[in-house]
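Justification of resources, computational component.

The compute hours requested in this renewal are based largely on the per-chain cost of generating structure records like the one below. Each record pairs the submitted sequence with a full structure-token output. That output is archived, and it is also reused by downstream analysis tasks.
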Amino acid sequence: MKRKTPLVLMSLFTLLGAKSVIMFSGCTPTRAEDDHLGSAEQVLTASQCNYFAVNGKVQICHRTGSAENPYQVLKISEQACINAHALHAGDYVAVNDPTCQGGGCLPENAPCDATLPCCDGFHCQSGTCVANVSDHCAPSPCQNGSTCVNDAGGYTCTCLPGYAGTNCETEIDECAPNPCVNGTCLDGVDFYQCACAPGWTGTDCDILIDNCDPDPCLHGICDNGINAYTCLCDPGYEGQNCEVDHDDCNPNPCQNGGTCVDGVNSYTCQCPAGYSGTNCETPASACPCSSAPEWQAALAASPLPAGSCSGDTSWPGRCGSAANDGQYSNMVYLRTGDGSAAWALYSGFYGSDPFCAIYEVQTDSSCSYYGGFEKYLPVTSAEASACQAEILSWAQQNGAICD
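The structure output for this chain reads:
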């Protein structure tokens, strides 16, 4: 009669394959020998088979269930580890325990479960052995509102802007080096402020304030400076803003009693009688004939009656002027009398020569010279003008209107 294969072996054979069963069929524990057979939380995992495989081979500690030899060292293929041992309770990889004495442990980053502890200094977290990390951030050593980040080697402080140092204990000096070109730097947390010197502006006090905008100079050109300006005044103006019309009459430039009239960068002198020139500095030329007694006698007399000297066709009347008469030109003349004598006063040019003259004339209608007193003087043009002015002035004052 043939011996039947136990049901439990048939199940394993079906699940793991015949080859695997042959490897450990003699030592497979019964349910009574191991209550945890197939318990998922205590079995070797497929990820461990993959992780610890070297050249396709994995060395494991296979649990036999024997009290005398509880584990057997097996070096099997990676796939056999997965197929035959990944569900075998108590099996574990022989890492850090090559003779399967129960002292093995899983290194950092190894896949882990409850079958084998992580090595000292590590713990199983989310299926991976990770380093034990002390909480260096309790309490936080980071200052000034910074964030503490815990790690295996200690901690790292993530500083807020404006702070530096291991614990963010140092405020960064934004004023070193000084960014303020023309001013004092005031340090803040992650910023600075420049207190500008007078005349400067801008974030870094590097912009010269334009004191000429708007232009303060009323009559001139503005020259900008540091916290100041200078007005280059137009001629005739003065004052800080060229607002004052310079008094060109102070001090008075007019001489000999002349009156000064102020202008813009100019003046005019109104000269008294007898003076001329820009500053009334030149005495007016006198008529040389004025000192003659006969000239004086003529001007002391009276104009001849109206209609007198009508017979003189060249220079008729008692007073007149003639542009040209033969060699005479620009002539002015006057005839006066006192009832017993008559005189004729002349001034003008004979050819190109200025002159003044006094003649004693007849009192008839001809008013002609009859051989009496005669005075003829060569003079300058200015003196001739003075003689003519004297004649015309006397004629106007005494009603002898010149023709």
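Residues 381-397 form the longest helix (17 residues). The domain at 133-172 is CATH 2.10.25.10 (Laminin).
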